[in-house]
Amino acid sequence: MTTIHPRAVPSRAVSALTATGISPLLARLFAARGVHSPTELDLSFKALLPPGLLTGAHETAELLADAIEAGARMAIVADYDCDGATACAVGVRALRAFGADVHYLVPDRVSLGYGLTPPIVELAARFSPEVLITVDNGIASIEGIAQARVHGMSTVITDHHLPGEILPDADVIVNPNQPGCGFPGKSLAGVGVMFYVMLALRAELRERGAIEAGREPNLANLLDLVALGTVADVVKLDHNNRILVSQGLQRIRAGNMQPGIRALFGVAGRDAARATAFDLGFAIGPRLNAAGRIADMSLGIECLLADDAGQALQLARELDRLNHERREIETEMQEAAHQIIETFNADDDQCAGLTLFGPDWHPGVIGLVASRIREKLHRPTIAFARGQDGELKGSGRSIPGLHLRDALELITRQAPALVLRFGGHSMAAGLTIHEENLPEFRTVFGEVAASLLSPADLQQRIDTDGPLEAAQISLETAKLLEREVWGQGFPPPVFDNVFHVERQRILKDRHLKLEFSLGGTRFDAIRFNCTEHAPDIIRAVYRLNINEYKGLSSVQLILEHLWAA
After folding, report:
1. Secondary structure of the chain: what % helix, strand, coil (to 5)?
2. Is the pLDDT of residue 100 over 60?
3. How far is CA 64 from CA 61, 156, 391, in A?
4. Which of 122, 199, 234, 365 is deepest in the core (most CB within 10 A)?
5. What angle do CA 258, 549, 29 make, to 5 degrees?
6. Mind giving me the DSSP string for 114-178?
7. Concatenated DSSP letters for 288-320?
8. Largest CA distance in the chain
9. What pLDDT was estimated at residue 551?
10. pTM of this prediction?
């Protein structure tokens, strides 16, 4: 059963916001998202939390400044997703601007797996680095850090994933979620952590007089990368993260971006001058992620590091091609997954948490399959694909009410030999098991999910911002909303109204195109990937979109859900 819940709107917060000149609609939307004061809407760079609050940032800056002065070689070990790629690009670009000798490498998803493992350390050793830096990984890499020490490397971990009970024995760890770190912005993405480390390094180099006055690198020019990685990693957009994303988007809209970002906007057919967080999350991010999913993320990182526009465009076109290939693979896997869940029984306790496996599934795409099934059935879902040596690689997505990483930790306590490795967040996690243990894992995961989730948790809930008046469903309102930063934890506005359906037709054999009426005014609407005709009177959950056609702009309703009214 699906229920609609209008978001609660604290009247005092609305009054405080409108008193400062904020439009009544925006005041209502901001208040419903927990904003109580206009200061929480200050997205200027000066409002950013200072690097000095981030545990380990100053110590890392000292270590890296010493290494730069000594001419020591550095190697960055990246992750193979968009967050890891952008974090790597931020690190490489900033460190080279500071005069460092720095290289990077990123593990192959299939053969080397995630994080700083001993095999990836052996690959890094070929560069003979004196300093090894992780970005967007490393907090669980106990064996990898130990192996780096065998080679005499100094080690720096920059990560944001939740730590286990034992931390790696690195020289320095920078992670807002590590024990004892008082940094208020716990939701930093990996790229955000690396950006903060570079801010701290610049301050250290300034203090040492190592940067010539007036010639220091402008790290704000890297904020397009920070915004992309932050949005693509679907971390919570708290106030600090909204500042990072807003500042990055402002620079992209002004044309101040890396050649690779510009090229990716071009191949995606998006207008960078009107860039939104939606573009970053659903157009640019997936093209970068495609490299890490089905090829080599080095391709994506090279695109972000390219200074030549022609080279950047060539790399972006290859990323676009890989993204099309990824879509084809995902479509086949989704069809297989839907066949698996045809026998789904919502009353079965084991179905509180779903485990899917396809013998021919691509390990780089299973996270997307898990996400689609999670959305369809509103159940925590883990999808597995074959790895190496009889192992299965799993990627999971969760729902509110079940912290996925904590659930996996509970499983390891109940059955210590069942899960070989795991890590992640509350809503997404990865793990490895032996294929022979799949039936047992399916049972245990279902039982653990059932024990942690209430019946109410398993009911799909749609939070909306209530109805709009006909006069508010306008191009002006759509433009007003487009200028703001929305995302995970600060959700984009969705509204619900009862409409009369005046006309409808199937567009390109895939999409339902409609014309609505409300209060005597007509509106265009579309429901993507749906060919089922709508009733004459419907209740629709929708968001406002600006439709461009033959040089003209108009408002269009993007339907997310609809029912007979």
Report:
1. 45, 20, 35
2. yes
3. 5, 9, 38
4. 365
5. 70
6. SSS-HHHHHHHGGG--SEEEEES--TT-HHHHHHHHHTT-EEEEE--SPP-SS----SEEE-TTS
7. HHHHHHHS-THHHHHHHH--SHHHHHHHHHHHH
8. 75
9. 82
10. 0.92
